[in-house]
Amino acid sequence: MEPMFERHDLIVCREVDRSPREGFSLVEAVVALTITAVAGAALLVGISSNVQLTQRAEDRIVAQGMARQLMDEVLGGRYMALNTTPYQTNFGPSAWESQLPTRQRYDDVDDYHNWSTRPPVDEYGVPLGKDDGKGGQRHPAFCAPSGRFDDWQQEVTVSYVRPTNLDQPLSGTETSDYRAVCVRIVRHDPERGQVELANLRRIVSYVPSLEIE
Length: 213
Fold this sequence. Notes:
Layout: H1 26-75, E1 115-117, E2 152-162, E3 165-169, E4 178-189, E5 193-205
Antiparallel strand pairs: 1-2, 2-3, 2-4, 4-5
């Protein structure tokens, strides 16, 4: 009779760690970095766009001030030169007024016709942003940043307009008692081309003197 053996199976139990795992897998990390990069790029684009809009708004405000200053200078002159007809058609400075490279001798409205310069300057030829209004330069601490207005340009045109429609300029040798003075400030942008920052238009008229007997 064979001996009887008891069989005891060895059962090995492994403890399973069911606690939440720590850290990220490589795939999760890459996905997270991609999302962060996209969000950062979108944020930078938004910031850049806002900065550009702010800069353009600032440029237009400054340009309006430049245009008003130049317009005041033009309208501060006489309607016509002394001993000339108010209906002359050859607008522009005389030979004597053109001897200087500045506007110091301009004293009539028509002297400014087709005048332009880049960068903008005052009547003494000093760049705007550095001028003191007296032909000199202001203290460096109060000057505009170097090159701030290098690509800006001032323009002035003077033309006769139709009395019945002051928005309609006359052409050729047509004349009237009304002239339109237009002042523009433009910026030369390498990407956008010529950008108009300010455009002012004023009407001046000639009123014949009344002879009293």
